[in-house]
Amino acid sequence: MPAQFTHVLNVTAGARAIAEGTARAIQGACGNASQTAAIDWLAPSRAFDIAFTGDPDAIRASLRETVQDGWLLDLNIVAIENRRKHLLVADMDSTIIGCECIDELADMAGLKPQVAAITERAMRGELDFPAALRERVALLKGLPLEALARVYAERVRLNRGARALTATMRAHGAHTLLVSGGFTYFTTRVSEDAGFEEQQGNRLLDDGKALTGKVAEPILGREAKLRALEEGVVRFGLALSDTLAAGDGANDLDMIKRAGLGVAYHAKPVVAAAAGTSIVHGDLTALLYLQGYRSSEIRRP
Fold first, then answer.
1. For the chain, how far is it from start to end, CA to CA, in angstroms?
2. Is-catalytic flag, 57?
3. In angstroms, what CA-CA distances link 238 with 22, 83, 176?
4. Burial class (CB in 10 A: 0-12, 13-18, 19+), 206
5. Residue in 43, 290, 298, 42 with CA at minimum distance from that of residue 171
């Protein structure tokens, strides 16, 4: 890629393939605002880059006049320098998996609406996360331990692209960490299934037969997720610019904003607005296309 280009507009598809005419319209919008390169397809009909030099805000303004909501595309501007990251730190619930485990446990206890309402407010940043977690866990007191196994077997499913994301980054030398405000019963299993090297989560307390309604302290929340990112940087001899953090809730915001590439993934509006980089329509392979990986480089275990 010519040295004069400093950024790329990365475009990835959601449910629909990208039509050639749509790609050309986006290219034209970029050309109106800056000097651009040709369309570089990373995956046919699924993802492409347009390299450019100039003001990213001018590109964004031009795109707002061109891009249609019905196209179901994610458009993000990323710097070309140090584009591929060497540390992935990802949230679990509603990011790597498609559910909130605590809400599914509450469903086993007949309390899902009550608990899910608290979860939603906490993820929007309206409640203190540790206090909200303690409140929800207290409602689960007496839930038999068999319910955890049932939730994992019946409700927990990896989001599309999860294994490809970790396998591809690890194949190119990156480290992978799953860090969750959820529970270690699930993080240990999800991390193994999805291919993460390490995991962190909160520990539910039990009496050997049922949950006690307590969670081990200290609670892993917003600050702990940021700390996991920063400690990983030190441990692996990296810079913050080498990192990718992804999540959907308010307790992910600090690590998202601190990472070299912070991605709001199918996130709450407050998170998407603050993150700068957002995936709304695509699956987790979009995080690979953001880093410039081509379809031929993606590992699909």
1. 30
2. no
3. 38, 14, 13
4. middle
5. 298
**Which residue of the set 74, 93, 248, 252 is catalytic?**
93
Token look-up 């607005």 returns 273
Q: Bin 43: left if φ > 0, else alpha if -120 < ψ < 50, else beta.
A: beta
Name the catalytic one among 49, 91, 248, 283: 91
- Alpha carbon 47 to chain centroid distance? 18
Residue at 89: amino acid letter:
V
User: Exposed, middle or buried by CB within 10 Å (0-12, 13-18, 19+), for 81?
Assistant: exposed
Owner of token pair 């919008």: 29
Quote the pLDDT of residue 32.
Answer: 85
Structure tokens at 267: 């996130």
* Residue 93 a catalytic site member: yes
Confidence of residue 283 (pLDDT cuts 50, 70, 90): very high
Question: What is the pLDDT confidence band of residue 34, given thresholds at 50, 70 and 90?
Answer: confident
